[in-house]
Design a protein that fits this description.
This protein is an alpha+beta fold. The protein has a single domain, classed as 3-Layer(aba) Sandwich (Rossmann fold), CATH 3.40.50. 20% of the residues lie in helices and 27% in strands. It is built from 5 helices and 12 strands. It has a 5-stranded mixed beta sheet with strand order 6-7-11-8-12. Strands 1-2-3 form a 3-stranded antiparallel beta sheet, with no helix packed on it. The protein has a two-stranded parallel sheet with strand order 4-5. Helix 2 packs parallel to helix 3.
Length: 173
Amino acid sequence: MSTSRGWLGGENQAMGGQQRQTRWLTPRHLVEPLGVFDLDPCGAPGHELATRTYLLENGDDGLRDLWTGRVWLNPPYGKEAPPFMAKLAEYGRGTALLFARTETGMWHEHIWPKATAILFLRGRVSFLTPDGEKSGTSGAPSALIAYGAYDAYRLEVSGIPGQFLRLDRKAAA
């Protein structure tokens, strides 16, 4: 399988000579209740969810370019997700949307020991295609992961259906 340059949010995969769309965009109803974000390092043209959006189409590199302010992150899924989650965990200010595969190395390295809170979403997320149409239901449950006190607070009061879990950083230390 070959993949063009990009992240979820930016890949087309060739399988058996056919292109399969894999640019799945976050539905706004998951982002808007969380307040204003300053940066989306994995953005998509026409689907900006933050004041500043890095776009591959503009030559931006969400891993290498400077992060400032509060970050919204729907990282590429697959092998490209852990570096983005590592950067957010180190940066410490923002919220990410990921599959709730809590047993994976990424969760044990970048989420469980470093996140401030998690909202395990009720039901499956219906992502959007680049033209704004529903792409169908995701193949796994999802979670919103907060880094920093403000992002944890915004998750807790968001009204987004799911189970909120505040992580005790003192116990983790």
